[in-house]
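NfeD-like C-terminal domain-containing protein: structure, please.
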Amino acid sequence: MHWLDSQWFWWATALALFALEAIAPGTFFLWLGFAALGTGLVHVLVPSLGVAGLWIVFAILSLASVWAGWEVRKRRAPRSSDQPLLNRRAAQLIGRVFPLDTPIENGRGRLKIDDAFWIAEGPELPSGTRVRVDAVDAMTLRVSAVD
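Here you go.
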């Protein structure tokens, strides 16, 4: 009897794949581990299956389990949110109008929004001018004067 023809080989392979999944998570090795467990079970039920037959069973079960894993992941994928800007505070400011806290000089000024100060970039404008937030670049608001 060859060591590849032993059911213990498949149990050990499954255990090694589960351990590999624990070390490098990504849920890929998990499904291959399930395929190895299935191959070990097939080997217990059909002990006359040769080494080549067991590898074919492992290949088929691997494909099936990875496909099943993708299906599970697809079903669990997050749905699109009804509030896509919920945790993106700066993006929530686009289109809103605020007075300038400090004038925009040399292309930069400052806005006070609620309890926070934001850097504003735009054309030269005096303090107190009402500006609309047109875009956000990191934590800098690009603004234009409101008519």
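Notes: The longest strand covers residues 97-105.
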